[in-house]
Design brief:
globular; 354 residues; two-stranded antiparallel sheet; 9 strands; alpha/beta; homodimer; 16 helices
Chain lengths: 354, 354
């Protein structure tokens, strides 16, 4: 099927575009009243994720409001450990919790292999339904948490400020940590292949917590596994042509290493100037980012100024996908997002003389 | 007075040393049973800070256990906003809270100028007492929070995950934010001058939250004020020869800019390889850091391996002060710290062939 709007895919391939494509991490989420309504209907967050009709509905909601250049599958990064039987609960305010966290070598050893086609069928069903509903309007992005990021939640049993338990395992029982990371990697590869087979047109790995590691630990315990995933996807008939974006929050010092994995695009948080990133790796990969999400708390004028500043950092260079440097906060006014999306399109057209 | 151990000051001046000096951020703190005992005696944390005898006692405690090459004044980074009347409470588990946070332009306007010599006399009294007790054994480090870091707590009213309010002020009312930062800067300058006059032999600015800013915002709202402080201290008779260290957590991408302030040393968190930092700015400043504090949860062997790895990154180059990349966690076994300190001394001696 030909896409009516293929800006995202063109930018990911570093081809010319009429204007810069834009989507927003967590664009389907709590800042939208219609999302909150659907979520209330679902009862809880996991039910929302696990009911393809509802996941499809919330995926499409932001596209009805804003001229976004992509849809992203509504799901959670913790679907894999949930399928592994760790007992996930997701509550607003509290954050994710696993009732059966992995604390010892034996826990990791006993971790079951998942069968994506049955255990995570609700995800691939949602992908198929969304593709049908989108009807080629914009591409659909699929995703997973990175093996390291999944491991942090699986070992800590939830979010953490100091990552005491998972880093303790990494430092003291590196073999156990590597065994867990390999199991996560195998599951992520199968998961993303299944998403590709179901119809996603772009893939993204969220390495939300890679940035809490030292450089050698990042390379050994996070990046090397993401590199394995990229390699496996590029070696597979179905997924080989689907561009993949790696995003390590706090990974600004490691951009060259991330680009070395062979990924197609690198996500940037707001601490790295886009122009620096372009100089460092822009000849090899596309760049996604990178406005500070808190700018959306400010006035429309400030949103316009900041989006314009960022677009000028890329100028007319190819290979930029505009996004925030992290997920949108739940308290943001939807009107600010409209301002942002419209500004990105109009200013980037002007910059290109279109 | 001649110091019996001047390794720290020599390393800060990038002179040769017999072995690498080491101290630990938060070395006087909750991981030590004797600290917890003194704190219980004091009743609460603020009383501990505000009673020079007790502050002196806890400052000296870690030096009785470990062969540390420096003492650091026991105090809190929030003494300045406390003196400004914002109503500080510090409770374990909850973190700092201000009962009168700054939310509007009028709040910032009304902020009183503090008189360090009376309002913060408890700090300078503690400095004098500690110097007397140390009797030249090791140098004493004084410190302050950076203007931006102080502002985050003053506006948010406590710690924050997203810095919504202070960034909102920065984006939407930049003049108000700058006015607050200038007031903080003036207070910090007076505060550090007073610490210098009272006898501290080295100074440090903790910019704990500079790393949450975009590069242009970091330069405008955090670094430029730290640069003002460095300049003011270097222009003052009493403080001009006291080396000053700037530490922005998460500032690895901005090391050159930090060194440009004219500071004597740059603190590094654990995400930047020490060897990279040395290549980038080691010809201009000393480097302090940078072991991941979570390594101290691991075995003695791992602590030794990791400290050795970091020391080898510097090799025989001058200008390294070993430290963690962030404060020591309260759950750490004191025995691990002994292993760390002893390893730093013995391995760095070996590396130098001493």
């Amino acid at each position: 099927m030909t896409l009516k709007n293929d800006r995202l895919l063109r930018a990911l391939r570093r081809e010319s575009v009429d204007c810069t494509p834009v989507w927003i991490m967590r664009q389907a989420g709590r800042y939208l009243p219609e999302y909150r309504e659907t979520r209330t209907k679902a009862g809880d967050f996991l039910t929302l994720c696990k009911t393809p009709e509802l996941a499809c509905e919330v995926t499409l909601q932001p596209l009805r409001r804003f001229e976004l250049d992509a849809a992203i599958l509504f799901s959670d990064i913790l679907t894999i450990p949930d399928a592994m039987g760790l007992g996930l609960t997701l509550n607003e305010g509290v954050g994710p919790r696993f009732s059966k966290p992995l604390r010892a070598a034996a826990d990791v050893e006993k971790l079951p292999e998942i069968d994506v086609s049955s255990d995570l069928a609700y995800v691939t069903d949602a992908v198929k339904m969304i593709r049908r509903e989108l009807d080629g309007a914009v591409p659909l992005i699929g995703f997973s948490g990175s093996p390291w990021t999944l491991a942090t939640y699986m070992v800590e049993g939830g979010g953490s400020k100091d990552f005491r338990l998972v880093k303790g395992m990494m430092h003291d029982q590196p073999r156990v940590a590597h065994s867990l990371l390999q199991k996560n990697t195998d599951a992520v590869v199968n998961y993303l292949k299944a998403q590709a087979a179901a119809g996603v047109q772009s893939l993204m790995l969220f390495d939300t917590w890679g940035g809490v590691l030292s450089t050698p630990d990042y390379v050994d315990f996070s990046l090397s596994y993401m590199a394995q995933i990229v390699e496996a996807l590029k070696a597979d008939e179905v997924s080989r042509d689907i561009p993949i974006t790696l995003f390590t929050k706090g990974g600004g010092q490691w951009l060259e290493k991330i680009a070395d994995t062979g990924c197609d695009a690198v996500g940037l948080d707001w601490t790295t100037p886009l122009s620096d990133a372009y100089q460092r790796i822009g000849d090899r990969v596309a760049l996604q980012g990178n406005m500070d999400p808190t700018v959306l708390y400010a006035s429309d004028t400030k949103v316009q100024t900041e989006a314009t500043r960022i677009l000028h950092e890329m100028g007319t260079a190819n290979g930029h996908i505009f996004n925030l440097g992290h997920g949108i906060h739940p308290q943001i006014e939807p009107a600010r997002v409209k301002t942002l999306v419209d500004t990105v399109h109009s200013v980037s057209k002007e910059i290109r003389g279109n």
